[in-house]
Amino acid sequence: MFVPLRWLRETPRHLLVCERSHVRHERSRHASHVRDHAFNCRVSFLIPDCGIVPEAFKSAVAGLGEYYLVKNLSLHELVTEEFINTFVKKGSCYALTYNTRIDQDNTAALLPTGKLILSVDKDTYEELGLQGHPSRYSGKKPMRYIITLDLSESTFGPDSKKHKRIIWALKEKKPLEFDFLLAWHHTGSEESILMSYFSKNQIQALQPKVTFSTLRNVQCPVLDNNKLKGEPEAACSAQEFFEWLGAILSCVGLENTPSSFLSTYSCPQPSTFVEQVLLCTITGFILPEKIICLLEQICCYFEEPKLAHWISLVVHGFADSPVSWRECEHGFLKGGENLYNLVIFRSLDYWLQMAVGAHDDCP
Amino acid sequence: MVRFKNRYFLCEIISDDSRFQQCLDERAVHNTVKNVIARMHGDFGLACCSIAFSVKYLNAYTGIVLLCCRKDFHRLLWSSLPFITYLESRNQRYPCSFNTLHVGATIRTCQKFLIHYNSNQLLALLRNCTSEADRQAIQESVQSCMFVEEEQFHSKDEESDDSMQMA
Amino acid sequence: MIESGDDKGFKPASYERIVLKNASEYYYLKIYLEFQEVGISLNAVEFKQLIISALKRLHGEVGAALPVDVLSYEEKTLLAILRVPITGLVKLWSALTLLDSYQNRKCAFRVIQTSPFLLALAGNSRELVLD
Amino acid sequence: MAGFVDLNIPHSLEKESLRKLVEAAAHLGYSTVAINYVIDYEEKKKEVVKPISSSELFTSLPMVQGKSKPIKILSRLTLVVSDPSHCNILRATSTNIKFYDIFAVFPKNGKLFHVACTTLDVDLVCINVTEKLPFYIKRPSVNVAIDRGIYFELVYVPAIKDSTMRRYTISNALSLMQICRGKNIVLSSAAEKPLQMRGPYDVANLGWLFGLSESNAKAAVSTNGRAVLLHGEARKTACGVVHTVKKPRTPDEDDSTPATKRPKWHCDE
After folding, report:
1. Is D4-261 in CATH node 1.10.10.10?
2. In which band, very low, low, confident or very high, does the pLDDT at B87 lie, cut at 50, 70 and 90?
3. Number of CB pairs < 8 Å for C and D?
4. Taking CB atoms and an 8 Å limit, are C19 and A362 in contact across chains?
5. Cβ partners under 8 Å of residue A99, min gap 6
6. Which residues have a Cβ under 8 Å from the Cβ of D241 and sit 6 or more positions away?
7. B107-135: per-residue pLDDT in tens?
8. Interface pTM, i.e. ipTM
């Protein structure tokens, strides 16, 4: 159909999934949602009515651990037997291509489950000759293909035909080279083993960047932990809160009236004034395990009586990661958003809000 | 072969000005409508509407005008027409307004509508008529336009898909 | 309405899930204005007027009536976050793209990021710089 | 999906301004640009010059924003034709013409448009956007062009510069779209100044105004550009003018085109 004027008003697809449950509930899925969102580039938490950074948070933030940037790493290095045995099978290994754009370039990601996901264009796919499937979001004529290799599979032995073929495809047929962000979570031996393993390559250890700031006299919406949809005059809805949170993190002014010229955005009602709000932002390549630790600290924070009614934890994913949650395909149309926000209430009830953009599966 | 679908707007130009009839020409109407689209919908709206835009018919005596544009963009044109407040011709502005009578998919539906409309107008005149001579004259013209309609019916039958659109 | 912090009991927390599809009423754009020359400053009101005039040129009075909100604006960097009803996104974006001058000085709007979620603008991995 | 492509960076004799344009394109996220050499027969500028090589322009190519790859620079020849005889130059093998990667024609009348779509050995047909189209675009010629893998180019900078040209750009684009239904369209800039250039996502969004659907608009700045390049390479090799030399593969030769479609740059004269 040729309907230009209707196209002009068309809205790009986007999803916001809200869940509500209790942190200690045995069937609560919040931890698995956090764990399944493998690639996080930014974590922020917001504590209302808190002036000084609690020690527990300080140490949790300090213990985020470093990650590595390896330049010009051939992809076949990630499927060698040695790498699999040293890293993939012992602990959780995370890898994501850096400075690649999922809507233009080839990208690759190694999940802690041992799955290596390649998102490649049609030409590369044809050259590689590995089995994959067309991307769900590339239309009638697929221009992008997804290849999933399971490195932890038992049949993926050094002598297996499959392994040999993959090595050959990545090493000789179509050598692919990327800059990788790497991190390894494990128990036991010392950290720098990744560093020494890739000593031949240009490798750089990086620390997540942390900033603490205190916002003063903030208008905060009133929430009711049992009412995701809010209630007129009594509590704000999850969606309103989500927008407000964005406004706070982007330093957007909240004091506007419907007749203001510049902006008509105002804090959702009802709201309260909070004297000071602590905001902590961490950027880098942050592992889900560390976010779980932070989450535990937040739960512990409420063990003693506190002024705050809730704490919010915002996690931004990489726009160019080939997966969002689990192995759900992720793409970039206009914004490539994949992020979530956890609101932990005093009662340890929580709201989980997961937002994805146009080229994403429902989380 | 897909043909381009057009929409035809049958409008009545209403004005109090007595000099108005003399200055009403296709060019003036064309420019007036284009200007109002440019004002309401900007460069984009004007660019859309100017594809196949034309003044197909103009009757200066009755102030009836038939405009044409592509179906895809007819809403832009339609939404601009109420905002016409004057007609500019030879550097003179004449206050007027456009009243859309009918929006059709073919010229023929518009023509049928116009005949129907005009005969209704004549009948209304007939009802309010006072002198016998006038009555006679109006009755004659009513009959003549009925005849024209009949004739049209037989001669122009090729355009089949004339769905009357008055959405 | 909110329970006290001491209540850590395992009360039968009910589970609820809502999927909001295309529910955002607004779209958000992070933009900055680039000038050929340096040292041109304009305040927030002038900035908004520039946006409205761009809309008016391309989409006429109907376009100028689009309720665009300048959520935040920094005079020094000419960085701004805009909010626009989701059906007006294409109109606003195209108007920004086709703008070429402000008071006879050449300029260009660069759109850095767009999203239906304001929160997404706070963390853009494409702007992530590692050192 | 390929990277973003801008197939129209007008050539100018001043290297510095050309350099600035290419740098701006790289900064905006384009991974391939083509420098456009125009030959207009009405302006008596007939000789085909040898295109400037990227090493002449840059000692080290600018990096594409947010990527670890440098920008790729191609050359393109555009013939402004009003008479069929003007096109003979495309068949001439002795001139500098073989150095060009892409051939485009700018037909001045309906007859030439038909010829360009149906018989000429070109990759791109430019659509006039600075004035009202002097001819009707006919569906049969467009269909043939689409079958032959020829693309239509719309430039957007005139629409930025001037209000009247903007109307013609949109209006002509919409007339074309009604015929070709958004297929085989390439959007490019023709920017003379870096500030006139727009980012690829912005240009894709502009596509909506020209009557392109969302996916077609994004294709018009990415995959369609790649298709034009491949079409150009196919034409070159089929002509037999260019002889390919095998070169040992280096690991950093990580182009997005496969070996079978790999550009045969290495000419043997």
Report:
1. no
2. confident
3. 45
4. yes
5. A179, D66, D67, D68
6. D93, D98
7. 888 888 888 888 888 888 877 777 777 77
8. 0.84
